[in-house]
Design a protein that fits this description.
alpha/beta; Rossmann fold; four-stranded parallel β-sheet; 8 helices; about 20% strand; elongated
């Protein structure tokens, strides 16, 4: 019997990890696999070992491990390989296969675009305090959009095209920029400066992340606070992370399918 384990990196911040647990439960009900468990490689519970033991207790003879991340950094990949190797030694009767990270699946791009639209819609209908109101919902070329990723590998090459061609409100965005925390020569503040220099007085920062990440969240908060001091006539809001969305199940199912077909 095959199991699927959603393997999250785990974070020290409280109240993170809930989307992963919910997705594992939904995977079971949608038939991606009869046995599905969620486990974290560090900090949080259930641990990866606990998830593995749960699958074995339910009769699993093989398991597909899906890294619950956009991409694996080198050190994260090494950690996962070591974890899986230890599990193979502990449970030699259990066949373990590692799928690709969720990465640049189209479903994740769709969720990101929805998060942008949600933030935009709420601001347009409710943001009335401060120096300026948010641009009206039908106003075109009124907003700058800044997509923020933890690292360059996290940002899909076709994301800008998807926003400009597939986003229902694409004409609202006067400019679209991308920022990755590991890129050289540019800070998040300078990315905001560039949008403001283009005339943007309303900006949405959209984290391209599955969950709130402590490092990225801190960088965004500091950049917004700094810009608020330097540009008091500019309004900057932040969209939600991808978090829980049933479309992520499509990405998980495709990663499992590709792994099984490749055996």
């Amino acid at each position: 019997m095959r199991a699927v384990i959603l393997a999250g990196q785990g974070q020290v911040e409280p109240r993170t990890g809930a989307p992963l647990i919910r997705l594992a439960a939904r995977c079971r009900t949608t038939g991606i696999a009869s046995i599905v468990a969620a486990g974290f490689l560090r900090y949080q519970r259930p641990s990866f070992s606990e998830a593995l033991e749960q699958c074995i207790a339910h009769g699993a003879r093989e398991a597909v491990i899906v890294p619950y991340t956009l991409s694996l950094a080198k050190e994260e990949r090494v950690d996962l390989e070591h974890t899986v190797q230890r599990a193979r030694q502990t449970y030699p009767h259990l066949a373990l296969y590692v799928a690709d990270a969720l990465g640049h699946h189209r479903a994740l791009i769709e969720v990101l675009i929805q998060r942008v639209i949600e933030a935009d819609y709420v601001a347009a209908h409710h943001l009335r305090h401060g120096r300026i109101a948010w641009p009206g919902w039908q106003e075109q070329h009124a907003i700058g959009l800044l997509i923020v990723g933890k690292g360059l590998p996290d940002i899909p090459a076709d994301l800008e095209e998807a926003i400009t061609t597939s986003c229902p409100t694409a004409t609202r965005y006067a400019a679209v920029r991308f920022y990755a925390a590991d890129q050289d020569g540019e800070s998040l503040e300078s990315s905001l400066d560039a949008l403001i220099a283009q005339g943007c007085r309303a900006i949405i920062i959209a984290p391209y992340a599955l969950e709130r990440c402590g490092v990225t969240a801190t960088v965004i908060e500091r950049a917004i606070a700094s810009a608020g001091v330097r540009y008091p006539d500019v309004t900057i809001i932040q969209a939600e992370t991808l978090a829980y969305d049933r479309r992520l199940l499509t990405a998980i199912a495709d990663r499992v399918r590709a792994t099984v077909e490749g055996l």
